[in-house]
Write a structure and sequence with these properties.
By secondary structure, the protein is mainly alpha-helical. The protein has five helices and no strands.
C-alpha cells in the first residue's frame, strides 16, 4: 500500500503567487454575462406569458419593463449579450490559434468591454 502522508503536504499556492490578470477577469465576466443573458431570457418569457394570460397581468409586467428600472435592467442585459457574444468570439479566435499573445489578449479584453458598451449605447439610443 502507498505511503500516504497527508498532514505535511503543502497547499496549492495559486492564490498567493499568481496575480489577477485582465484576461482571466474578462473570462470570468463572460461566464457571469452568460448567466445574466439567461435571466434576461427568463424576463422575456415572463413578459410573453403575461401577454397570453390576461390583459391585466400584461399591463403590470409591461409597465414594469417600461419603467426606469426596467430600462436599466434591459440596458444591462443588452450590454451582457454583446459582451458575452464578443467573449465567445474571442475564444473561437483563440481556438484557431490567433491573438494568443499576452499583450494582444489584454488589448482584446479592453476592446471587448469598450465595444460592448458602445454597442449597448447604440442600441439604447436607436431603440
Amino acid at each position: 500500500m502507498a505511503d500516504v502522508n497527508r498532514g505535511n503536504r503543502p497547499l496549492s499556492p495559486h492564490l498567493q503567487i499568481y496575480r489577477p490578470q485582465l484576461t482571466s477577469a474578462s473570462s470570468i465576466l463572460v461566464r457571469i454575462t452568460g448567466i445574466v443573458c439567461l435571466g434576461a431570457a427568463l424576463l422575456v418569457v415572463v413578459w410573453l406569458l403575461a401577454a397570453v394570460s390576461s390583459e391585466q397581468s400584461f399591463a403590470v409586467v409591461d409597465g414594469l419593463m417600461r419603467s426606469v428600472i426596467g430600462d436599466l435592467v434591459m440596458f444591462v442585459a443588452t450590454w451582457a449579450i454583446f459582451y458575452h457574444m464578443l467573449g465567445r468570439l474571442r475564444h473561437v479566435l483563440w481556438d484557431f490559434g490567433h491573438f494568443v499573445e499576452v499583450d494582444i489578449s489584454e488589448k482584446m479584453a479592453k476592446g471587448m468591454f469598450a465595444l460592448s458598451t458602445v454597442l449597448a449605447l447604440l442600441v439604447a439610443i436607436v431603440f
